[in-house]
Amino acid sequence: MPYASSGFVIKHDLENEYALVDLGNAPDVSLEEQLKGWGISLENISLVALTHLHSDHAPPAGIRTITESADCPILLSQTGWEHQGDERVVEMKSLLEKSGRMELLDSAGEMECGNWSVSWRPLTHAVTGQPVFGGNTAFRINTVIVSGDGPIWELFTEDNKPFFYPAQGDPVRTMAVNIAHLSLEDLKLQDYPEERKKRWREEHGLLEDLLKTMVDPQFNDFYMNLKTLIPTHIRRRMREESAILYKNEIDKICAEQGFGLKVVFDV
Ligand SMILES: [Zn+2]
Question: How does pLDDT run across 53-104, given as a tens digit for each residue?
């Protein structure tokens, strides 16, 4: 789905090695085909991290491919795993379990995984039923952050500063962040059922929250070093127009703050 990407390939700086965060949402093209399009074969994938088990991030076909044909650790949070009891994912869960390569993570942490430096934080998301803190996991893998699904204000906190500022290695260069909607005010005006609006407020990103983090002095160095910002999961109607609106607002703050980052979409 344009402007709604939920699968990312991260290239390692030194090796012919790649990590995947989530497995995309392109029902017509297999994961293998998509990777092949970029000249990547499954043998080059040395890490898979899943933010949560919603089918737009962890589609059954993709799970089948990585559990059957790839040979690498698959990271997923314990909370995300436990709160996914939906019948539709019973098969996926059993494939993941059978692979023997799944590593269930504490809600937050940091580790070296092969050649990868991995850090992660919990965000509120309803995998099935009620929203739960830790239903989604935001990952930082080497110099790339992928937030998955969850509120931006919950990720950009003082406690989470180590997530944005790696103690070792290069600073974060790329961030893919869920920006489902513009603002609370805009969401109020939109013609959606109340229940949906509530879910977007509680479990997804708003542009106004991102803009606040961009003028927050404690994240100034983070944005100074950031080269690419990828808004994902746009759910506001007229996605293309919304994307342009997002880009203009972000560019405006970048000009004011002296940030050199580029806003890039998955189209
Ligand atoms: Zn989700």
Answer: 888 898 888 999 999 988 899 999 999 888 876 677 788 889 999 999 999 9
Please tell me the distance between residue 86's alpha carbon and the centre of ligand 1 in angstroms: 13
b/e sequence 44-79, b meaning 16+ C-beta within 10 Å: bbbbbbbbbbbbbbbbeebbebbbeebebbbbbbeb
| Domain regions of the chain by residue span | 8-263
For the structural domain made of 8-263, what CATH number should be given?
3.60.15.10
Instruction: Read off the tokens for 98.
Output: 């059978």
State the distance from the centre of ligand 1 to the C-alpha of 220, rounded, in angstroms. 29
pLDDT in tens, 199-258: 999 999 999 999 999 999 999 999 999 999 999 999 898 889 999 999 999 999 999 999
Ligand 1 centroid vs 187 CA: distance in angstroms?
18
Q: Output the CA–CA distances (angstroms, integers) from residue 62 to 15, 55, 236, in the order listed.
A: 24, 10, 27
Q: What is the DSSP annotation of 56-110? A: TTS-HHHHHHHHHT--S-EEEEHHHHHT---GGGHHHHHHHHHHT-EEEEPSSEE
| 8 A C-beta contact, residue 264 and residue 229 | yes
